[in-house]
Every structure is written in C-alpha cells, then in structure tokens.
Amino acid sequence: MTDIPLLSLTIFLPLLGALVILLIKEDENSIKNIKKVALWTSIGVFILSLLIWLQFDSNNGSYQFEEKFRWFNDFNFYYHIGIDGISLFMIILSTFLTPLCILASWESIKKRIKEYMIAFLFLETVMIGMFASIDILLFYIFFEAVLIPMYLIIGIWGGERRIYASFKFFLYTLLGSVLMLIAIVAIYRLTDSMSIETLQGNYFTKNIQIYLWLAFFASFAVKIPMWPFHTWLPDAHVEAPTAGSVILAGVLLKMGGYGFIRFSLGMLPEASSYFSPLIMILSIVAVVYTSLVALAQTDIKKLIAYSSVAHMGLVTIGIFLVNIQGLEGAMIQMISHGVVSGALFLCVGVIYDRMHTRDINFYGGLVNRMPIYATVFMIFMLGSVGLPGTSGFIGEFLVIVGAFKYSSIVVIGAATGIVLSAVYMLFLYKRIIFGVMNNEKLTEILDLDNREKIILIPLAIAVIFIGIFPNIFIEPMRLPIESIISNYEFANAK
After folding, report:
1. Is 96 helix (H, G, I), strand (E, B) or coil?
2. 380 or 243: whose pLDDT is higher?
3. Of 394, 402, 487, residue with least CA distance to 89
4. Does residue 1 sit within a domain?
C-alpha cells in the first residue's frame, strides 16, 4: 500500500466521480444512476479515509502520507500534501458526512440533480484537499474553492431568500480571504517559502506577526464564525437545503478553527499570545449572547445555527488557551459539533420534508407518532447539551479544565454558555417531541423510513462512541498539539 498515493486518491476520487456524472446524459432513466454514482463514490472516499486512519502512526508527530512535487520552476510553489493527527479527523469528518448528505438529498432534491451531485463531490474534493495541504498557496486555493460549490448549493437549491443568503455568505467570506491572500504573499516575500511545515516556528518579528495574524484572523473569524462576524450563518443555514446545512455546520465552520491552530498558533505564536485576551472576550460574548438569541428563536434551523456559533465560541476559547487540555478539547469539540449539529440539521430535514415548515410552534407530541425519531433526536440533543457519555461532554469538559489554568472569568463565561445551551436544547426538544399535539396535520405524520434510519443511526452511534472512547481520537493528535504548545511557549519565553 505504501507505493499508492493514498492521500491524493482520497482527494481526487470525488472529482473523478463528478466527471463520470458529467458524462451521464440527464433524463428520467439516468437520474437514479447519477445518484448511485455520487453515493458510491462518496462511500469509496470514506473507506479510503478509514484506510489512512488504520495506517496512521499515532507515535509519529510529524506529517505522514506526504506527497510533494514542484508546481512552478520559477517559484517555491509545491503540490505538497500530508496529514498529522490534527488534520486526520477533519478529513474523516468530511468523508463521513458527505455520503450521508447525498442520501439525505435522495428524495428532497427535485431539480438539477446532476449539477447538485457534481457540486457535492467537488465540495468533498476541496474540503479534503484543504485539510491535507502543507503548502500555504495550495491550502488557500482549496480554502477558497470551497466557496464555489457552497454558494451554488445555497443559491440554486435553497429556500425563498436563497439569493440573499448565498450572496451574503460569499461576500463575507471573500472579504476576509482577500486579506489572507495578502498575508500569504507577504510571507512568501519574507521567507521565500510556502511550506507550512518549514514555517512552523517563530520566523517573524512580533510587529510583522501582528499584521499577519490580523490578516489571517479576518478570514478564519468569519469562517468559524466568531461574534460579531456571525450574521451570515443563520441566513445561510435557514435558506440552504438540508444537506447544505449539514456540510456548512459539520465541516465548513471547522475550517476557521483548523486555520487558527495551523497558522495563528503554529506560525505566529507571539501575536497569538498578544491577541489571546481579545479572542477570549469575543468568544465569551459569542457563547453567552448567541445562546440567549437561540432561546428567542421560533425557526428550528435558526436555533441550531445560533447554537453552532455558541459551540464554536467554546472551540476558540480552547484553541487560544494554548494548553494541552484546551487544544484537545477544542479538537474534540470540533469533531463532536460536526457530527451533532450535522445530525440535528438532518433531524430538522426529516420533519420539514413531511410538513414543509420549521416553525417550533407548529409541532408538538411527535413522540406519539415518531418514537424512533424521538429517540435519535434525543441522543443528538443530549450530545449538544454535553451529557456525560456523549461526544459533547468530552470537548466541553476538557475546555473547562484548560480554562481553569487561564482565568476564572473564562471558566464562568464558558460554563454559562454550556448551561444556556442545555436550556434552549431541552426547550426545543420538549416543544417538538413532547408537548401537546394540537395540530391535526401531525396525526398522519410517519416515523423514520429505512433511508432515514441509515442516515441517522450511524451518527447516533458516532456521538456515543466518541463519548465513551475519546482516547481513540485524542491519542493521534497529542504529539502535533504538544509540538505547537512547546513552540508557542518557547517563542513567548524570550
């Protein structure tokens, strides 16, 4: 297996699947074939990512599965890919969610199915490529390319205000990325290198680091999104089709967190230390404020969207604590949030496909008609709340433990957000699942069909599995995290 470029194969197999779909002539008879090609391609990619995980050496803190060749003879630009414990699970999260998204779209997407499946497979390629990139320019190309399919998915297959939402999403994220490009050009001019591996350290003076840090911050803060750059997210989530919301919450929000770890902490340690109080203030405001806003929502999707901003606030707290518990907690929280929020959006999609409304007040008493749905929804809700035994608990617990080493104010802020998340999620569950079934339209609603069970049950298993066996996920990322922390401490000890 060592001679096979396993990582490149994982990156570009979805693109090959998209090309096959492109060659299929679209008519009534071929629609099923298009869906099957998209599904089996994404399953194949997931299997490849599991093979990478099986062959991954947790005792090796450097990049593995490296592939490198020169792009341009005149510049130090390389196609340079590889993974460590930090990027490994981001890739697996992407490959795990994509086939579930394609299955979720099986019945709900009625128009331009061919283009939709191509967009999703292209999106999978650029997501994996971004997490696997060790060259900054390559990272940037993949990072920006994510915008294109996501913009189309929201803008073509979204709700009534889809054009507004897609433009807002595009402009917000593009604006930040322009500054990031300027920072990348500056780094190349200063170092003559684009290698993330080489630049992990303290290559720049503190003043230069501050300017570079702010440029990267503009891009990553919008992507996560941090308060006050979060306003595009609820609009994008509400208007996006179900599968679009899953990928948006599950993977795209993690790009910002991953960028902070890889670039801000890894390359700009002094600037990260300088700005960490600002990050803590913004994160605490995000955790508390967006949780309170979530409480006031009547649209289920909007509530979950605001909860995403609050949960990602915990992630940014964990990252900029720059201790082992904080960073491990942030990583587990990103993985957990990817699974849990993706699953919650799929749960919303299930009842939306039946009733065509997301109004909380419309529903009530679904446990009587949909017991299996009520059970899986409960698992995801408890995962979001952070109940012990679920994935959400591990991340939140580690962040809180790490925060004790930093400041008691940060602990109080994070804990307040966690309590509020329990309030709005339990409120949501009570209203939808238990409540009184006053609406006659709900008397005929059907429980999960086989396709929906195939989508939701693996996610429910993942939530419990991560919660019970967190070390399986923590061990591979420990060495690269320790390397980032030691580099950070060395840079700031001067």
Report:
1. helix
2. 380
3. 394
4. no
